[in-house]
Design brief:
PiggyBac transposable element-derived protein 4
Length: about 110
Amino acid sequence: MLQEKPMKLSEFQVEIAEGLIKAEVKMGRPSLEEAANAPANRAQPSPRPCNDARLDNVGHMIQYGSRQWCKLPSCHLKSHFYCIKCNMHLCINKDRNCFMEFHTKKTI
């Protein structure tokens, strides 16, 4: 190596470019197509309890916990309260009672 003549900068750049092209290394931002096909980094929705367990009126207790979106589809508010048995966050305040609605309506 010491006896070899140093390579010109332009030759070095060409060799690097050819090596990257052959290696198919992707650099930089993803293309619009790749970005559109990429999966979203969202949490999966929590599974809903079956209707028999949801409507049985046994063991459904309100617990205070972390603030999350109300799981009733018609509601778009956040709530600290969730059902211990169903493990579902549901609103309960003076204007709305999603907890009662979730545990009494047959179709949701």
